[in-house]
Predict the structure of NB-ARC domain-containing protein.
Amino acid sequence: MGGCCSTHPRSSIKFGKQIAKKLQEVKDQKENGDFSDVASKPPPPSSTERPSEPTVGLEFYLNKVWSCLQKEQVGIIGIYGLGGVGKTTLLNQINNKFHDTTHDYHVIWAVASQDRPVERVQDQIAKRIGHSNEGWKSKSLDEKAEDIFKVLCKKKFALLLDDIWEWFDLTRAGIKWL
């Protein structure tokens, strides 16, 4: 038989019984198991490209902010100015630069509206990190902050927060420094 069969009948019988046992286990698993969901959703990409207009006269600031982001000791960068000067455009360009380069950041874009800014930012962060579900809506601000913190403390992330009109409590949103 070309070496495919054992010359020892006892080992062949033992091996055959092991195979029969494994096949029965597989059959039992197939009968008792629930295979309706055999794969989970893939994790969200580390960054998503945003539609953006070309920067006119903002290249210096874009390069300056990007070089600061490359430094390990930089924790927060603030971009401020009058309405219409290009802050959102600059943030879009930074976001897209993350998208176009290899990095280990999880990039989160959020807009802090004037109406309930902390809650709105929490919801956007949760959606981005895959925690936005039915149970999420019923949680308190503090519970949401704890959930966000538990996920983000294990990741290197960049939170691009747009449209801030007044002081914003990052800790209350779940963003803390260790």
In short: The longest strand covers residues 106-111. The longest helix spans residues 9-32. The chain has a mean pLDDT of 84. DSSP finds seven helices and two strands in the chain.
